[in-house]
Specification:
single chain; about 425 residues; alpha/beta; Urease, subunit C, domain 1; TIM Barrel; 2 domains; nine-stranded mixed beta sheet; five-stranded parallel beta sheet; globular; binds zinc ion; Metal-dep_hydrolase_composite
């Protein structure tokens, strides 16, 4: 299978240089980026007037939580979780999770996301939804043992079962990731088990230092910060992808940099739940790889990575009173290259030899003209709805705004029905 994208403005290479060029894709790779490519291709997409960008990488979400969008807003994290989100989640079975994930996947595809990291339950239903839509996914069963040995054994069993399930699927776009929920919901024994499995080269995702209360609780319980705790358990490695990292001190930042951990910044969620402002400047200065995520739709309340990029840029400028922090290229790097680095993917850049994961954005719109600076427009002016086509692993997932693998109307009806009957 080959695809030729003709006549677009390509955000090319590591430097994100806008270049007028055609892009030729063969199999799952970008093979040529040049003007006037005359090669034959199975599919030709007219990209004139469009900007072709590396697919966005949502490094932290909970896709089925689209079902809980707008269910309980304007509450602190613990009250929100304990009184609203967890009780609602107890009503969600495999079927509900499947439709919720499909809704999330459609939303992500339509806003330019090609790869996402997901943590939830009934994850085989999420995998089924991913196969339908065709995004690249890293799926983890969210382990929570609350220090209970029986529960821990059950969580380990479910994790192992799901890992085997993903292996047997044999789809290169669908990957397994270990997903202990957080240092405050998982016992050291549980985290140690995860660390042992991670030594086999399996990626890990976890929530880390999200709120001030979490740091206080972990310090009281273990006499260490959450970062120090995970480090003492051997859980901080280059394969660790930790969401939030809001409450970190300089010593934590140094540990994270030394261990080559990725922190996933989720600005919308942190602002909405009033968790705090992640110390982006400090982490970047320490040399930490910082990626970007939306978190679940219940705390965002959408999965639009273009919006998330704008929020990063604005939040850190106003917070530090420094407009030079989080410039457009840096933010785009967080949403692409840094996510790819975390996941060990040769992606996040449009260049020969890289994975053909990219999005085509319609720039013939009033809010995206004149074309003074396409990267600036992407971060500060574009919206999810501007994305027209999406290619993942050399396969067309969305064409002219339509996600091909799924009946969108049916998904919208199903989730409405779930809202009425189940939630
Ligand atoms: Zn989360």
């Amino acid at each position: 299978m080959s695809i030729l994208l003709r006549g677009g403005l390509v955000i090319y290479g590591e430097g994100f240089e806008p270049v007028r060029a055609d892009v030729l894709i063969e199999g799952d790779r970008i093979v040529r980026v040049a003007r006037g490519i005359s090669a034959e291709a199975d599919e030709v997409i007219d990209a004139s007037g469009r900007v072709i960008i590396p697919g966005l990488i949502n490094a932290h979400t909970h896709s089925p939580m689209t079902l809980l969008r707008g269910l309980a807003d304007d509450l602190p994290l613990m009250e929100w979780l304990q009184n609203y989100i967890w009780p609602a989640e107890r009503k969600l079975g495999r079927r509900e999770v499947y439709w919720g994930a499909l809704l999330g996947l459609i939303e992500m595809a339509k806003s330019g996301t090609t790869t996402f990291v997901d943590m939830y339950f009934h994850m085989d239903a999420v995998a089924e939804a991913v196969m339908k839509v065709g995004l690249r996914a890293f799926l983890g069963y969210g382990m929570v043992d609350l220090g209970n040995e029986e529960k821990r054994k059950a969580e380990i069993r479910e994790t192992e079962r799901f890992m085997k399930f993903i292996e047997e699927l044999g789809d290169r776009r669908i990957n397994f990731i270990l997903a202990p929920h957080a240092p405050y919901t998982c016992s050291p024994e549980c985290l140690r088990w995860v660390a042992e499995r991670a030594r086999e080269g399996i990626l890990v995702t976890i929530h880390l230092a999200e709120t001030r209360e979490e740091v206080k609780e972990i310090k009281e319980r273990y006499g260490m910060t959450p970062v120090q705790l995970l480090d003492s358990l051997g859980l901080l490695t280059p394969g660790t992808i930790a969401a939030h990292g809001v409450w970190l001190d300089e010593r934590d930042a140094k540990i994270l940099a030394t261990r080559e951990v990725t922190i996933v910044h989720c600005p919308a969620s942190n602002m909405k739940l009033a968790s705090g402002v992640m110390p982006l400047k400090m982490l970047l200065k320490a040399g930490v790889n910082v990626a970007l995520g939306t978190d679940g739709a219940a705390s965002n309340n959408n999965l639009d990575m273009l919006e998330e990029m704008k929020l990063v840029a604005l939040l850190h400028k106003v917070h530090t009173l420094d407009p030079t922090v989080a410039d457009a290229k840096m933010v785009l790097r967080m949403a692409t290259v840094h996510g790819a680095r975390a996941l060990g993917l040769k992606a996040g850049i449009i260049k020969e030899g890289y994975l053909a994961d990219l999005a085509v954005i319609d720039f013939r719109r009033p809010h995206l003209r004149p074309l003074n600076d396409p990267v600036s427009h992407l971060v500060y002016s574009a919206r999810g709805g501007d994305v027209e086509d999406l290619i993942v692993a050399g396969k067309i997932v969305m064409l002219d705004g339509e996600v091909l693998g799924v009946d969108e109307e049916k998904v919208l009806d199903k989730v409405e029905n779930i809202r009425e009957v189940v939630i």
